[in-house]
Write a structure and sequence with these properties.
The chain is mainly alpha-helical. The protein is 77% helix and 4% strand. Helix 4 packs antiparallel against helix 5, helix 4 packs parallel to helix 6 and helix 5 packs antiparallel against helix 6. The radius of gyration is 17 Å and the shape is elongated. The chain starts with a helix and ends with a helix.
Length: 142
């Protein structure tokens, strides 16, 4: 059981670090031009120094929210395909999206503020960006 929870944690941290690894903008760190995760972490450090702890600034927020929106749309697509092909139940997306909405609320309003010192405003924006594609699907397509 402990190994399973460790694997789940590893997968979770890998997934949330994808935008960090794919950060396309360059930074100069110790005289070297770097991209990817090192550049992203440098941009976060500079944003926190400028805006305060836990405040990313508009550029990084837009970058992160783009990934959240892409993830939310992919989640809607794959969960719809899975629920229609494996469960053959029209109510499954409602249950699945409801569970995910609660899990995201826990993550954004409890876990991330404690672990990453995330401010409420960022958590709320993250949560809304994840929820809107699900709500659109449920309102117009379910």
């Amino acid at each position: 059981m402990k190994k399973l929870s460790e694997k789940i944690k590893k997968i979770y941290y890998y997934i949330i670090a994808i935008p960090d690894k794919l950060y396309p903008f360059a930074s100069i760190i110790e005289g070297k031009v770097v991209r990817g995760e090192s550049s992203y972490l440098d941009a976060v450090k500079k944003a926190f120094e400028l805006n305060g702890e836990g405040k990313f600034g508009m550029g990084l927020m837009f970058y992160r929210q783009t990934f959240h929106l892409i993830g939310a749309v992919l989640f809607v697509i794959f969960s719809t395909l899975i629920s229609s092909n494996f469960f053959d139940n029209e109510l499954m997306p409602f249950f699945l999206f409801g569970f995910v909405m609660v899990a995201l609320a826990f993550q954004e309003f409890y876990f991330h503020p404690k672990k990453y010192n995330q401010v409420f405003k960022k958590g709320f924006i993250d949560w809304v960006v994840w929820i809107v594609p699900m709500a659109i699907y449920l309102i117009y397509f379910a």
